[in-house]
From TrEMBL:
Keywords: DNA-binding, Transcription, Transcription regulation. Residues 3-71 form the HTH gntR-type domain. The lineage of its organism: Bacteria, Bacillati, Bacillota, Bacilli, Lactobacillales. This is GntR family transcriptional regulator. It comes from Limosilactobacillus alvi. Pfam families: GntR (PF00392), Peripla_BP_3 (PF13377). CDD domains: PBP1_AraR, WHTH_GntR.
Amino acid sequence: MAEIKYEVVKKGIKEAIERGDYQVGDKLPTESDLMVKYQVSRYTVRRAVGELQNDHYVYRIQGGGMYVDDWQDSSTKRVINNKMIGVITTHLADYIFPSIISGIDRAVSARGYSLIISNTHNNREKEAQSLKRMLDNQVAGLIIEPTQSAMPDPNIELYQKIEDAKIPTVFINAHYSELNAPYLETKDMEAEAAMTSYLIDQGHKQILGIFQVDDMQGTHRMRGFINAYMEHPEISYLNKTIMYQSGQDMSKVFKRVSDIMSAPDHPTAVICYNDELAIQIMDVIRSLNLRIPEDVSITGCDDFVLGRYLKPRLTTLEHPKEKMGLDAGSMIVKLIEGETVESIKYDMPPHFNESVVANKD
């Protein structure tokens, strides 16, 4: 089987260093020189050098080039930081994430561990940076919320490297089936199907569902919405769906919602991907002089704390948040200490509040 280009570059540089062609502290050829030598792109060179950095064969000086690291002593000088656990999430300081991270911190600190926290902003490049940072820090274990988990992942090789290095890893909110790691997730599809069925039982035949579809939570919630409608073939054709991705211009999504809800026969209920979106959609609906819930019922998901203070209070599905964090923290410590663990799937109990009323039409 032919070697991948970056592996050829990595192997060539590594062998030159181990042969003694370059001594510790020697400056290596420039990226441009390596591109010419190996007939590869700059990206390929950088990927090879990045892996050599992780293996402590090479280090960079900003603006000064690449140099040979003290690779022969790296095995004795660099040891696993046995009391540091890495946490990578798509967000940190808002929505449900402070509660999840607080739970993780409570669980691991009780066992003498500390956290290194990184935020990807649901961006794949930032995810790669976060994973590399954790590898560089030689963490004892990792708790990861995958970025854009419903999409093909260009960072899967980094994840595979983590798995090959036998770094204990736990996934939260979503996981990759090709990786053999435990996970903690919510029963999104089942919960959203139950919420949709509840609205249908309340007389809402035409419901608008709005879902983020680049993560697995969103795709599962959308499937639950559609599955519930399929149980009612006499009205299944009446459902409306809007899909969007993270990072998308949400003003376009809101414009589509406005257009649909401006029609005389507009949906009488709206199901939103999460509570954060539901709060924004409530503003859109009110801008059309429609009343909530008298004209339009609305539901969210995750039981975001702000949803409890809305007027009317938001109907939602409960995300376990801090319990997920506590369980994830306990699980990663058990893995680090050699115990076996099982993945967890949480129920999402409904909170039926004032933002939903029966449709009498």
